[in-house]
C-alpha cells in the first residue's frame, strides 16, 4: 500500500507540478524578463545598458550574437512558441553558488551627466567534452589539458565541442559615486544565459535574478566606472526560470500523460467495484427505478493481491502510453531537471530544496515505465521464439 501511495504521489507531481503548460500559465517567471521588456535589439541594449570593456556585444562571436538576438526576439514575440517556466528559488549561502563576481569589470560611461547607470556584461564560450560516462568511469579522465588550451589542443586530447553558451548579465541602475571615492550599493542582477547544442539551433534560455552588493568607484579622467567587488548577499534567494521551445511534441506528451493517469485511476477504481443485481420488487417507485438506472448501488470489495502500482506497471495500455509520453518529452525534461539539479545541489537543505528534490525524483520516475516496456518486449520475443507452449 505504501509503495502504491508513493508511486501515485510521484505521478501526480509529475503530471501537475511538472506540467509545462500549467507552469507557464500560473508561474511567475515572466518577472525575470523585466530588464529587457523595452529592449528589442542590440542597439536598444547598447543604449539602455553600459557594457564592460572586453565583455560587451562587440567582443561576442557571431554565434553568441545570434543567441542574444534570438533571446530578445523571442521575449518580444509574445507568441505561443515558447514556455516561460518558473524553477523555484535557491538560497545563496556560499561562494559555490555566488555568481555575482562576473560584474567585477571596468565600464566606460558615454554620458557622465547621469547619476545612474545600468551595467551589462556578456560572455560567450564553447563547452568541450571527451568520452562518455562509461569510458570515463572505466578509463579515467586523464590526461587533462593545461589551462588556456585552444581548440586544436583540446581536439588533440580527444575533446569535442558539445555546447555553446551566451551568458548576459544586466543590472538595475547603480548610482555613480563622486570622483575618487568608493561607494557600496545593492543591485539586482538579471541573468539571460542561452545554451544550444549545435550552431544555429534554437537555444534554451536560463533566467535568473540575484541580489548583489557591489563596490564601485568613478574616474572622471577616463570616464570609467570600476566595480572592485561584487558578492551575493548571504541568505538571499536566487530566483530561477527557464525559456524552452513549445512544440506539438511537448504538448502532445502532456495530453498523453494526462490520459494515461485518468485511464489508470478509472480502470483501477472500476476493478474494485461490483454491482449487486436488484429485482423489480425492491424498486417500488418510479423514482427509485430512475435512480437505479442512472446510478446503481455499487459495493466496493478491496482486492489486496493487486495494488495500484502493480496495475500501472503491468497494464499494457498504461505502460505503452506512458512510454510514448516520456519519449516525446525527453528533451524538455532533461534540460529542465538538469538545471534544477545543478542549483539545488549547491544550496543548503531547506523545505524548498526538498520540494525541488521531489520534483526531480518525479521526472526521473518516468523512466521506470521504459524499463517495464523493455521487459514486456523481451517477454513477447521470448514467447515468439520459444518452442514450448503452455496452457
Automatic annotation (TrEMBL):
Naturally occurring in which organism (per UniProt): Aphanomyces invadans
Signal peptide stretch: 1-18
Parts of the chain that traverse the membrane: 308-328
Keywords linked to the UniProt accession: Membrane, Signal, Transmembrane, Transmembrane helix
Top-level division of the source organism's lineage: Eukaryota
Protein name: Polycystin domain-containing protein
Amino acid at each position: 500500500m505504501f509503495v502504491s501511495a508513493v508511486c501515485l504521489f510521484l505521478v501526480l507531481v509529475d503530471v501537475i507540478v511538472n506540467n509545462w503548460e500549467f507552469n507557464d500559465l500560473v508561474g511567475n517567471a515572466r518577472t525575470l524578463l523585466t530588464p529587457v521588456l523595452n529592449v528589442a535589439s542590440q542597439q536598444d541594449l547598447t543604449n539602455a545598458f553600459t557594457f564592460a570593456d572586453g565583455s560587451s556585444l562587440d567582443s561576442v562571436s557571431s554565434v553568441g550574437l545570434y543567441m542574444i538576438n534570438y533571446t530578445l526576439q523571442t521575449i518580444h514575440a509574445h507568441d505561443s512558441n515558447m514556455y516561460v517556466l518558473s524553477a523555484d528559488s535557491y538560497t545563496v549561502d556560499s561562494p559555490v553558488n555566488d555568481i555575482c563576481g562576473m560584474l567585477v569589470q571596468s565600464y566606460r560611461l558615454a554620458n557622465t551627466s547621469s547619476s545612474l547607470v545600468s551595467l551589462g556584461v556578456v560572455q560567450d564560450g564553447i563547452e568541450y567534452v571527451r568520452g562518455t560516462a562509461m569510458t570515463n568511469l572505466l578509463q579515467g579522465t586523464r590526461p587533462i589539458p593545461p589551462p588556456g588550451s585552444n581548440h586544436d589542443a583540446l581536439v588533440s586530447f580527444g575533446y569535442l565541442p558539445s555546447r555553446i553558451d551566451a551568458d548576459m548579465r544586466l543590472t538595475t541602475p547603480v548610482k555613480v559615486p563622486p570622483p575618487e571615492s568608493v561607494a557600496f550599493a545593492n543591485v539586482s542582477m538579471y541573468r539571460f544565459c542561452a545554451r544550444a547544442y549545435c550552431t544555429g539551433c534554437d537555444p534554451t534560455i536560463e533566467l535568473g535574478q540575484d541580489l548583489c552588493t557591489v563596490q564601485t568607484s568613478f574616474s572622471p579622467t577616463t570616464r570609467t566606472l570600476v566595480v572592485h567587488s561584487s558578492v551575493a548577499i548571504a541568505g538571499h534567494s536566487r530566483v530561477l526560470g527557464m525559456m524552452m521551445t513549445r512544440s506539438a511534441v511537448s504538448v502532445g506528451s502532456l495530453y498523453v500523460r494526462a490520459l494515461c493517469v485518468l485511464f489508470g485511476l478509472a480502470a483501477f477504481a472500476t476493478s474494485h467495484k461490483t454491482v449487486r443485481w436488484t429485482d423489480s420488487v425492491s424498486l417500488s417507485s418510479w423514482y427509485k427505478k430512475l435512480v437505479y438506472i442512472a446510478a446503481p448501488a455499487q459495493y466496493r470489495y478491496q482486492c489486496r493481491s493487486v495494488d495500484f502500482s502493480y496495475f500501472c506497471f503491468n497494464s499494457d495500455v498504461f505502460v505503452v502510453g506512458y512510454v510514448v509520453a516520456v519519449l516525446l518529452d525527453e528533451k524538455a525534461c532533461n534540460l529542465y531537471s538538469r538545471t534544477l539539479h545543478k542549483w539545488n545541489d549547491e544550496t543548503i537543505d531547506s523545505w524548498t530544496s526538498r520540494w525541488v528534490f521531489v520534483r526531480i525524483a518525479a521526472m526521473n520516475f518516468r523512466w521506470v515505465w521504459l524499463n517495464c516496456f523493455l521487459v514486456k518486449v523481451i517477454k513477447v520475443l521470448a514467447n515468439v521464439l520459444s518452442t514450448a507452449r503452455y496452457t
